[in-house]
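Curious: can you check?
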Amino acid sequence: MRIAVGCIGHETNTFSPVATTIDNFRKGSYHRGDEIIAAFRGTRTITGGFLDVAEQLNLQSVPLLWAFATPSGMVEHAAYQTLKSEFLTLLQNAGKLDGVLLDLHGAMVTDELEDAEGDLIQAVREIVGETWIVTTLDLHANITTKMAHYSDVIIGFDTYPHVDCYERGFEAGQLLFGMNQGNIQPTMAYRQLPLLTAPPAQCTMKPPMTDVINALHALETERGVVTATLSMGFPFADITDAGVSVLVTTNGDMTLAETHADQFAANIWEMREQFTFNLHTVEAAIEIANQTDGNPIVLADGADNPGGGGPCDGTTILRKFIEADVQDAVIAVIADPESVAQAIEAGVGNSVQLNVGGKTDTQHGAPVALTASVKTLSDGRFILKGPMGRGTAANMGRTAVVQTNGIEIILTERRIQPYDAQVLRSVGIEPQARKLIALKSAVHFRADYTPIAHQILDVDTPGVHSPNLFSYDYQKLRHPIYPLDPTVTYGKTKAT
């Protein structure tokens, strides 16, 4: 049994001014053929999970292309077309297949296509015909009718932070095996809700999402149900189909799939007001830390999260820390190749004058002029050891830790979401030995930091990944949609 596997992946923040080019994919995570197996075997990833189940079930993996760029602004359409052509050529030359596993994200937008994944899945379908296609998607996928129509099964992550990637890849392999054995005839129902939610409210480590995911898992135990997915969507893509959606797949019973999908979607709609949260000003967060015993206090700077398209060089928190003369603090990370180069030239133990951050745009804060001591220099390479993506190689580019007064700043050449504590430990900083840690991450860091953090505070900073959905000028998003519109009806229930 031969199963093709591949990816063209991107989480596109259409509010980001930084275009995504073909070089961003090729300098990101880019593998062809057997390079995919070498890169993902033994990792806690979708493809890692699939490779393991393939070995157990004696499936032959046929690796095609795996290309993923760090989240940023609109993908240049020519870049997408280049990758799509490369992917489809490899697929056409793959020989007879019994299935295709598409390890996608679900929120890729080009400057000509709102639904790039739907376009790719359709193109794959046109080549493979009735051969089974199973698509895995991120919990932040903006799932469209086209994605659902051209996939036989869609499996979304159940967790945020995304710590179940391996399990979903394993599940995909099991389903492909069962479908080819004739034991599963997938029938999938799709529902889209008029609902936007922001990242802090989507975290599955706390209510209401803990309750929602428990209900989803209970649904999957119902007789005849094969798998079910709740996608919370990616609200930072200004496209028609941004937002929450539900998928239920049954074994040959579309009526049952429709009934379960309707009921689950209605339940999510009834609890829409629970997807709210509170943000702290940076000043308030500092005051809380000053009045609290215990380390560390973690500040989540979600608005500049590079994992959602932020430039990762915002300076709002750095400036506030300096003004408040905070001590024993770390900022992770500020992507600033110019400052990294200056720190390297100065050398460890020496003083250097820097204009830190604020070089991408004006929205995330101006550069901060400061004098700092160079503490450490590194190549920025390490292996993830936390629950999310464990075993995967990470690369921050050349990295410098500089200190100004009581603040250590991790400066990197590359944008990287610092969700794994190895970001700090790889440069000699033990998180539990610091009082304040500011992380450019919205939720993913919680998987590794919740066990060691004394307290976690979501802070209100400006940026293209701000959880304040009312701060965006949506032009293409469908309306009415909650909570942006004062009234909206779903089923028989009207929001007020």
